[in-house]
Amino acid sequence: MFSVIFEVHPADGQKDAYLAHAKALRPELEGIDGFIDNERFASRTRPGWVLSHSTWRDEKSVIRWRTHAGHHLIQEKGRFAVFSDYHLRVGEVTSDSHPPAGHAVREQRFDATEVGRAKLCTLVEVVPEPGQPSPADPADLWTSIGLGPEVPGLVGREVYDSIYTSGKVLALLSWSGPGASSALPPIEGAGFRTRSVRIIRDYGMFDRRESPQFYPPVSRMQDGSEAGKP
Questions:
Q1: CATH number of the domain encompassing residue 165
Q2: Whose CB among 10, 41, 123, 148 lies 3.0–4.6 Å from 14's, allowing a Cys bridge?
Q3: Which of these, 51, 2, 8, lies nearest to 173 by C-alpha position?
């Protein structure tokens, strides 16, 4: 299975437009051979950021969606009119505590990103028991999954709240390599789902070295504005 971890920051006043574009594409997305699931989350630690996480049967399925005409059109609208920034990582699922029905973890590629700081990401989904609140403080979430404030090899950690499922929380952990991720103890119990993804491509709006598509360069100006963007 493959995972697409797409973190996006819509420009001011554009979040609803982004979600509307995503909703309009949903029927097309569900018709792609090899598509498994997709969910969106709002960042609790970086206001304004949204995570779209999708799962695919294999890399060919991801390519089918990437080359879909409607998706490509919306991508261009997003890049030039809706997004102020984004970070996209594509990788192969190396473990899944609750794999989707009819799908198994079967590794086919063993290479990793050459430019991204994180070579592996762990996604931990937490769904509280009925009547129980989700962790209100990110520190409480880290404690619940066994992570301290300082973890060697952990190069990024984010907390996201599901846009579609009330109370559901996702922890996105970025590791310098597979060995570093062993610092995360096994997570057991109802309400937890843990997936590991070896990152193969890592790119964004301002660094597209590993992107499979060409767009004119965009660079950050000293005042925070963007040069090279229409």
A1: 3.30.70.100
A2: 10
A3: 51
* Radius of gyration for the chain, computed over Cα atoms and rounded to the nearest angstrom: 17
Say how far apart CA 97 and CA 194 lie, in whole Å.
5
pLDDT, tens digit (0-9, with 9 covering 90-100), for 49-64: 999 999 999 999 999 9
191, two tokens: 């309400």
* 229 located within any domain: no
- What the block records as the tokens of 45 is 């630690």
Domain assignment of residue 216, yes or no: no
pLDDT at 73: 75
- Within 13 Å of residue 95, how many CA atoms lie on the same side as its CB? 14
